[in-house]
Amino acid sequence: MPASDRVERHIRAWLESFVVGLNLCPFARPLLPERGVPADNLRIAICWDTEPEALRHTFLQELDGLQSSSEAEVATILLAFPDALGSFEEFLDFFADAQELVKLAGLDGLVQLASFHPQYEFAGEEPGAASHFSNRAPYPIIHLLREDMMERALADFPEPENIPGTNINTLEEIGVEELEARWQKLFRV
Question: How many CB atoms lie within 10 A of CB 24?
C-alpha cells in the first residue's frame, strides 16, 4: 500500500473511532462517509516535507485552497505531517507560526486552526491523563476550519461551552488503558 494511502487510512480510522466514535467533535459526523459514500468536502492533505520552509509553503497552499474554494467543494482541511514535527514542542512552535500566517494573510476571523499531535498534552494536566486523547491524532495535524461554518454549527448546538468538559468525562470513563488499546488499533488499519 502506498504511504499516502496508509496515512490517510490511519487518519480516517482516528476520525471514525475517536473524533466521531467518541463524539469528541459533535460537528465532524457529516464530514465522514455514510453508507460507503465518501464526503467530498473533507480534504485530507499530506505533507511529506521535513524542512520548515517547505512545511510553511504547504500550509499556505492549503490555506489558499480553503479560502479560494466554496464550502461545498472543501469544507475543512486536515493537513498531516507524517515525517515532520514529531516533537510536540516543535509542533507547537510551527502551529504558532501557522496562526501568525493566517493573520498575515488577512484570514483571521475567517479561518480557525485546531491542533492535533500523537504526543498532545494539555498544559497543567497530568502527563498520563485521559484528557490528552481529545487532541491526539496518529500524526501531527493542523485542522483548517471555516469560521462561519463553526459559528453555524455552534449556534445549533446546545451549550457548546460544555463540549470540553463532556469530552474529558467521556475519556476518563473509558480510561487510559482502554484508550491506549483503541489507539494501537488505529495503526492496524
Answer: 19
Q: How many CB atoms lie within 10 A of CB 149?
A: 14
In this prediction the pTM is: 0.91
**CA dihedral of 124, 13, 69, 156, whole degrees rounded to 10:** -60
The tens digit of pLDDT for each residue in 139-175 reads 999 999 999 888 887 777 778 788 888 889 999 999 9
What number of residues does the chain have? 189
Q: CB count, 10 Å around CB of 144?
A: 24
d(CA 39, CA 28): 11
pLDDT digits (tens, 9 = 90+) for 41-75: 889 999 999 999 999 999 999 999 999 999 889 98
